[in-house]
Structure formats: C-alpha cells, structure tokens
Amino acid sequence: MLPRAWMLVGLLTFSVAFSARADDSARLRENFDFGWRFYKGDATGADQPAFDDSGWRKLNLPHDWSIEGPLSQTEPAGGAGGFFPTGIGWYRKHFTAPEALRGKKISLTFDGVYMNSDVYLNGHLLGHRPYGYSTFQYDITPYLNYGTTPNVVSVRVDDSAQPASRWYGGAGIYRNVWITATEPVHVAQWGTYVTTPTVTADAASVWARTEVQNETAAAENVTVVSQIVDDKGAVVASAEAPVSVP
Description:
single chain, mainly beta, six-stranded antiparallel β-sheet, four-stranded antiparallel β-sheet, 15 strands
C-alpha cells in the first residue's frame, strides 16, 4: 500500500457565499474523450500496440453501442434490456505524452464503462473492472512512453453475459475518461473531504480534511493549504498546516 497521511487542516469560519475552486498548479487534468476507435465484436490481439485498427470506426466518447441497435426480440438481454444488442466491443486510442510529464504520476480515470472491462496500455494489462456503474482509475506511469514515441490504450468491454440487469444497461465507455498528472507527492484521488458542522443564516463552520499521498522512496514534509473563495474568486478564509508523509 502506498504511504498516505491525513491532515485535518482546521476550522474555517466565514459569513459569505462561496464556490469551490481547485488549484491545478500541481495537478493537470484533461478530458480524454476525443480521437478513439471502436470495433463491435471481439478482436484477437487488439490489446497490443502494433495491432492494425485503421479500419475501425472513429468516434468520441461517451459512447454506447447498444443504443444504436438494431432491436430484436431474440436478443439475450430480453425485454428488461429493451431487446437491444449486447456482446463484446473494443476501444483504442493513440496518443503521445510530452517530455515535460516525465517524473510525474500519470493516471487514467474512467467515469463509467458497462461492463466487465479490461484496460491495457502499450500491451500491459492495467486491470479488470467486473462492474458497470462505478468510477475507477489506473496508474499508467510505469508503461507510458514520452516524447514522440506513441502510446496506445485499449479497452475491451464485455456485457455478453445476459440478462444482466432489470433495466437497460447499455454497452461501452458511456461516461467521460480523464488523464491526470500530479507530482509524486500529491493530494490523493478523492482525497479532499469538506463538512459543515455548523450552519446558520449568517455564518458557517467548515472542516476540511485532506489525504496526502507520497509515491517517492522517502518521507516528505509538505504544507497543506485550504482556501475558501467567494463567487467572485476572492479568498475569504484560509488555513494551512504542515504534515509529514511517510
């Protein structure tokens, strides 16, 4: 398990409306939905970067191949699935990673893939997700090429085991995909927790808890800074605290 540390930054009291704003100076997050290729059916070897996908359909995500039909009463999903087609499909995307990202931690986040997905990068299996509705993330740093050397991410989706639901489930990468780059010491994915234990018409108390993740070989000392900004972008409250991350 990767070392992590929790830091309860403190109580921030304020009396104006505010909106959340992320400081992305150390975290780059970009949409990864564009420029994919799709094949409806199984494709032996499609997990390998040298596989020829030039004849595959070009599309952008999100995508659901099931809703495209055709409908048939003989489809195994049955009436609960709307008689829409199911089965196996493949997605592939070619991309490059700039040299400036070398030394950072790079991850891919899938907001939703229905279902039973296998994700590969440059022929390496990143993981299997035996479900269809939850968000999941893979660290692609160990297998990423930088500079002009291309990368290929491949996703096999299998919802052929039917009936699988009491309603229409769809098929494919039906939600957004994101690529994220952070420093080795960073706020963990989903690592910020904010609660408001006291709220009145004039003021509110906010507790901000942050999980810091250290993916280096040695302990690191960092300072966690939390800010509340109003709807105009002005900082109305802030707190900071040092933390040692093993």
